[in-house]
Amino acid sequence: MNDQPLAEIGPDRSLLLVDDDEAFVKRLAKAMEKRGFLPETAESVAAGKEIARIRPPAYAVVDLRLEDGSGLDVVEALRESRPDCRVVVLTGYGAIATAVAAVKIGAIDYLSKPADANDVTNALLARGETLPPPPENPMSADRVRWEHIQRVYEQCDRNVSETARRLNMHRRTLQRILAKRSPK
Length: 184
Hints:
9 helices; Sig_transdc_resp-reg_receiver; transcription regulation; Bact_response_regulator; ActR_PrrA_rreg
């Protein structure tokens, strides 16, 4: 999909990205800047709420689970500071209950991680009752599963036994999965 033209973004191109995954938020910021946004990043609930209070953006992308709390707190702070802010919630842990909670407090869309910059841009710029178009090249279910396992593995400091316990999986099964290449 092509980059979105500036005319669709509007005169205020400010964008707040809140995610505790430093590498992800830097990549997303760079990609969103190429699409015409003016991104500012935060890696915690506290930093996100502070930016929302001082410099409320026109757009925001907020991770649901952050090290110091819930991204929903940032969404609420954004709604208080700037009711017209278009907020998209990202999460690696998709669940209907959290999607409903995010939309109830003012998010315009809810995307599962890892979402690419085109998906995020489409969600931020979608207007009215129409849904953004589905991703052109969505990940396979196997790839989503593999990404989730890798994320939990990294969060457990690459401890196979702890990762297997948290995923409710046999340690040997997890070792076999980790030894394979990522699915397409």
